[in-house]
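Narrative of accomplishments. A recurring question from our advisory board has been how the design workflow behaves on a single, concrete structure rather than in aggregate. To address it, we present the structure tokens for one chain from the evaluation set, followed by the sequence designed for it. No filtering or post-editing was applied between the two.
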């Protein structure tokens, strides 16, 4: 059984290293980490390159974590979903092949949640979009949704004998995403966090038709 978890961890981490933000930005002859916030995640791609590249980044990063979670499920069951998904989140945030400079884990977390129970993933995504739209702060939306995730898992698996393990893993996953937003939290406290102005988002990257 130990070797199965080892496979899940390695496979999940390596899948997490597939940084869609970096790959897509290289299509436009740039490194997304050298622009905007310096992050390789969906939001910075949205600010820098526009809607389509950001949607592709979100989908790609979610799919890799979903696959990592499903590998975990196939090898050890429900617990493997959390292990594989979190390994992908770690690989996404700190990719060894890209100098440990990746995203903040929200898209990867979405992929894991979709593997756990897809309606929950869609609900949390809707909540994130709603909060971001109302406040203009994607970071606030991400932090709130991360905090809601362990609560949702506690409700979803309340009758499971492994409830405490599921909640523990979800708390760790929430901590990873909130920890990755520590700079945003500092800027929010100082009143320096940038709002997302949807009117200024490019419909297409510069240099494209």
């Amino acid at each position: 059984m130990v070797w199965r978890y080892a496979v899940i961890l390695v496979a999940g981490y390596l899948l997490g290293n597939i940084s869609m933000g970096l790959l897509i930005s290289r299509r436009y002859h740039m490194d997304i980490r050298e622009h905007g916030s310096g992050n390789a995640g969906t939001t910075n791609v949205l600010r820098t390159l526009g809607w389509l590249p950001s949607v592709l980044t979100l989908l790609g990063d979610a799919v890799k974590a979903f696959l990592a979670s499903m590998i975990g499920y196939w090898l050890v069951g429900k617990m493997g979903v959390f292990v594989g998904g979190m390994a992908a989140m770690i690989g996404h945030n700190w990719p060894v092949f890209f100098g440990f400079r990746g995203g903040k884990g929200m898209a990867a977390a979405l992929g894991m949640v979709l593997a756990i129970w897809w309606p929950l993933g869609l609900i949390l995504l809707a909540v994130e979009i709603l909060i971001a739209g109302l406040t203009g702060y994607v970071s606030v939306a991400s932090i709130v949704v991360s905090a809601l995730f362990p609560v949702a898992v506690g409700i979803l698996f309340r009758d499971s004998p492994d409830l405490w393990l599921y909640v523990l893993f979800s708390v760790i996953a929430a901590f990873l995403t909130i920890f990755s937003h520590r700079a945003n939290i500092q800027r929010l406290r100082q009143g320096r966090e940038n709002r997302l102005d949807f009117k200024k988002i490019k419909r297409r990257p510069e240099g494209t038709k």
